[in-house]
Amino acid sequence: MYMDNNFIIEFTTFFLLLGIFNNVDSTGIIRIISIGILMFLSNFFLLTKVFRDQKMRKSHIKVLLSYLIFLGVYLIGFAIYPELASIKIFLQAFSLINFFLFFSSLDYSSCKFRTMKIGIVLYIGFFILIRTGIMDYIKFWRSYILFPFLMIYFLVLLYEREHKKIYIALVGALALIIINIDSRAVMLIMFITVLVYMFWNAITKNKARYILFLLVVFVSIFAFMSIYIGWYTNPSEISIAIDNFSKKIFGKNLHSGRTQIWIIALNKISKRPLLGYGTGTSAGNLVGVEISIHNLYLQLLVQNGILGLISFLILLFSIWMLFWKSKDRFITRLSAAFFIASIVHNTFELILLQNHMAMAFFQWFIFAIGASVETCSSNKEVCKVENIMGDAEHEYCHKEINYTGV
After folding, report:
1. What mean pLDDT is predicted for residues 88-99?
2. Which has more confidence, 312 or 245?
3. In terms of C-beta density within 10 A (0-12 exposed, 13-18 middle, 19 or more buried), how is residue 149 classed?
4. Residue 395 in 3-state DSSP?
5. Cys-Cys crosslink for 80: which of 10, 115, 264, 278, Cβ 3.0 to 4.6 Å?
């Protein structure tokens, strides 16, 4: 069965947006349906493609191997904690990475993201109605403060292709929304995204530097966690000054409650460091109170121990290496910047694998679009690509595909 790339992308985007706007439905039915459909489509599309093509792209092999290792560790975690929660967590990760594998094999060069444009305008409209008091539903926008950040990706991508000023205006509107929401984490990752994008040429000067950069990011995350906890347990002049700055600018303490949870989690992790407490275990299970650990990396240590964390970092590394061969393309540069920002953001959330599945699918969607440049260009068949403005088709040899905006 063959379906047009653009139809698949637009069709899936509709359910992505439906998942984002799920808080409008207080019963949660829309959320359950939209996420369920996305999980089904992720696995259905990938399996259909594998059975139809009877092969896996060479560029995907390393990602697939690291993915299988990660799922293997998750299965061990299920044996340790054989509960429904473990099955749920396993299926979520399984669907998200299958989503990435399939959508990174598509060609986005002629996709206009029409459904995404509509979703962005709707979000801005909802936000205005909420902030003006016309629509009293604060939970809607507070729950999805990451959404405007992710939407900026698509607007920048479309502007590079179409050069329409309306996209810049929409980026400005989303940036103002982020500022208005006062999320320190989202502002931080916006800053990181800009930095990675600006210094991309230096980061990709050679392969060794490129690999080293990601390793530095990983080390920096854990160094920050150690320093952050240290500031809480042993306050210093620096931490007090930063705390005062945070109160003055954002009206929030430096330590929002995450620190106490992290300390409890680390104490529990030290007792079962290798394999953790099981795939479905939460911080709440360990302390008897329903709380979130607000840190994906600590969550992995709690659930699957050092093996779980390392296997996931290897998976992220294998995806990062997909960006290398197409590092000179605009779409790769933009996606890689968001990739690093997402890795950092999950120091404060669990979004990439477990919580807020609609947001998780969006993040993996962005990774897939960036990786698609390399995976499509590695196809040995001659491709005909129609650019985003609908100009005449051009033929390229198997070594290169023209992605507009590059």
Report:
1. 93
2. 312
3. buried
4. strand
5. 278
Determine phi and psi for 394, rounding to 5 degrees.
Answer: -130, 145
CA–CA distance, 169 with 156 (Å, rounded to integer): 11
Q: Which amino acid is at 153?
A: Y
CB distance 181 to 145 below 8 Å: yes
Distant-in-sequence, close-in-space partners of 6: CB < 8 Å, separation ≥ 6: 110, 111, 112
Query: Which positions ≥6 away from 228 have C-beta within 8 Å?
Result: 255, 259, 262
In sequence order, the 6+-apart residues with CB closer than 8 A to the CB of 127 are 141, 177
CB 334 within 8 A of CB 404: no
Is residue 90 scored above 90 in pLDDT?
yes
pLDDT of 350 above 90: no
The Cα-based distances of 128 to 9, 135, 168 in angstroms read: 28, 9, 18
> Residue 11 contacts by C-beta under 8 Å, 6 or more apart in sequence?
none
**Which single residue is written with the structure tokens 């479905």?**
280
pLDDT band at residue 186 using 50, 70 and 90 as cut-offs: confident
Query: Domain limits of the chain?
Result: 5-119+131-145+192-377
CA distance 402 to 36: 35
CB neighbour class for 206 (10 Å; exposed up to 12, middle 13-18, buried from 19): exposed
Kindly report the pTM of this predicted structure. Answer: 0.87
- 254-266: pLDDT as tens digits: 777 778 888 888 9
> Please, how many CA atoms are within 13 Å of residue 350, restricted to the half-sphere of its CB?
20
- Among the residue ranges 8-12, 275-279, 282-286, 363-367, the one predicted with the least confidence is 282-286
Q: How far apart are CA 394 and CA 26, in angstroms?
A: 49
Find out whether 187 and 152 touch, Cβ atoms under 8 Å. no
Range of weakest confidence among 139-148, 296-305, 360-369: 139-148
Torsion of CA 396, 397, 399, 401, to 10 degrees: 20
